[in-house]
Predict the 3D structure of the following.
Amino acid sequence: MTDALTPWMEKYQRAWESNDPADIETLFTESAEYRTEPYADPWTGHSEIVDGWIEAKDDPGEAVFTWTPVVSTADLGIAQAETVYESRGTTYSNLWVIRFAPDGRATSFTEWWMDQDAS
């Protein structure tokens, strides 16, 4: 079984910290879809993904992110994660669903998240 998830997540964390468009584009195929919520309209293609990412970016070191694999195959990765923003007093629980192209880039990325502090 090929693990596409771990190297992709490592690249994602690098892109999250750098907010460099080249690092972001490396993660996705040219026609990939990125959904910030399961039923949200996707950002489609490198240009929309980079623009959306940069608009919503976190500053380097702003969040502490940890994750564990739930499913990891050559074409599907599901990660359970936690994102802690200490300065905001906010913690998110995340479930990410990522579909991979044969070269390991994502063709589809969907975030499922919950604010742990919301009532």
User: Anything to note?
Assistant: The radius of gyration is 14 Å.
